What we know:
The structure holds two protein chains of two kinds.
Chain A: E1 5-7, E2 10-13, E3 19-24, E4 31-37, E5 43-50, E6 53-57, E7 65-68, E8 75-79, E9 88-95, E10 103-104, E11 108-112
Parallel strand pairs in A: 2-11
Antiparallel strand pairs in A: 1-3, 3-8, 4-5, 4-9, 5-6, 7-8, 9-10, 9-11
Chain B: E1 3-5, E2 10-14, E3 19-21, E4 24-26, E5 32-39, E6 46-52, E7 60-61, E8 64-69, E9 74-79, E10 88-96, E11 105-106, E12 110-115
Parallel strand pairs in B: 2-12
Antiparallel strand pairs in B: 1-4, 3-9, 5-6, 5-10, 7-8, 8-9, 10-11, 10-12
Amino acid sequence: EPEVTQTPSHQVTQMGQEVILRCVPISNHLYFYWYRQILGQKVEFLVSFYNNEISEKSEIFDDQFSVERPDGSNFTLKIRSTKLEDSAMYFCASMRDRGLEQYFGPGTRLTVT
Amino acid sequence: AQKITQTQPGMFVQEKEAVTLDCTYDTSDPSYGLFWYKQPSSGEMIFLIYQGSYDQQNATEGRYSLNFQKARKSANLVISASQLGDSAMYFCAMRGRSYNTDKLIFGTGTRLQVFP
């Protein structure tokens, strides 16, 4: 069964460093998302991406964040200068078409020290 | 604004019994979708069940069913014949389908523990 994959599973970085979180959505899916979950809290929407552009972003998704689909299979989230409060689990999700369910990847746990 | 409320931070159920996890929602969208996801201790988010706001019948998927009461704005998850492997966090989520919004709004979750 096709699934969303994410790498790495765990990333430790120092404050102020740039990180890139990688996702490979399900191959015939057209809509892509990033969510984050701070430890013990609820899952929060960051950004949605369709047709090679951002379709919606939350207040969390400020200028430090960017997304890219560089090669038609990968979908990346970049944080330019990480802060302690960026420590969270980051989930990528994809959806085949509007109105259907979103499938989540296993997540990347980001720890900023 | 859309909002999901899960008032049960934790629930206990004995193996083989049924359990209901509560979810209420608030939205002004005329068309929306409601979802339940399971998050085991390993951290991944597993899609369980979906209910569309115009669906006439309550959704069912195996041991999972969704008790959808539109007038009360509730979408409770019912797990029948609980198994030890059902122990996990359960999140209710909503997606508006109007106004070009397809992001998911999540509740705070309910931790379910199944005991033998």
